[in-house]
Amino acid sequence: MSVRDSLDGVGDSIRGFLEGLSPRDRGLLLFMIVMILGGAGFFAQGAMVKASKKVKGQLNAASLAQHQVDTLLREYNSLSGTAEALDARLAAGADFTPLTWLETLGNEMGIGANIKSITERGVDVTDYYRAQKIDIDVRDLNLPQVIEFLHRLEGAAQAIWISEASLLTDRKDRNKLRLRLQISVLKPVSEA
Questions:
Q1: Which candidate, 3, 189, 1, 183, places its Cα nearest to that of 87?
Q2: What distance, in Å, lies between the first and last C-alpha atoms of the chain?
Q3: 25-58 pLDDT, tens digit each
Q4: Closest Cα partner for 132 from 77, 187, 84, 78?
């Protein structure tokens, strides 16, 4: 018996079954088939909607994760550039003599006589650098001179950190200012 013959036999059996049913039973059978297919379609659609929501949620989570990774990479690159710049400034301070540089800076600005004291206060050593602490007391300055002095300290090629600063007016002349600073000149640890 071939496949075609068996399909013809099945078709004849279904046709015979349907012909044996009353019109009311045929309608009821058709209604049941429609209800079964509708229920199956409803559950299939629900499953597809649920799967679609899950995929959208995963895409949103992946997009958020990608955004966070991009943000972290930008921050890393920024910090890496900052670290490289600090390493360059530390290397520039390897043979730096801050006391001589501060006196030269005062003479260049014309305030060498106003520098009352430059005192070394010791050295702190960490795993990454050694910090030579220096106290500076400069008197009888005007505001533009204070700004220029601080700007030159901040713009030095070496790594200089201003840890404390106070600016006071002179008791005798309110137009004159007194600047007291504690700075740390950072140098590579290998120079310790």
A1: 189
A2: 100
A3: 888 888 999 999 999 999 999 999 999 999 999 9
A4: 187
Q: What is the CATH number of the domain that holds 184?
A: 3.30.70.60
Spatial separation of the C-alpha atoms in residues 184 and 49, rounded to whole Å: 64
Q: Check whether 192 has a pLDDT greater than 60.
A: no
Joined together, the tokens standing for residue 111 give 């305030």
Phi-psi group of 110: left, alpha or beta (phi > 0 → left; psi -120 to 50 → alpha; rest → beta): left
Do 43 and 112 belong to one domain? Answer: no
Using CB atoms within 10 Å of the CB of residue 20, give its burial: 0 to 12 exposed, 13 to 18 middle, 19+ buried: exposed
Side-chain-side CA neighbours of residue 111 (13 Å):
26
Do 43 and 85 have their domain in common? yes
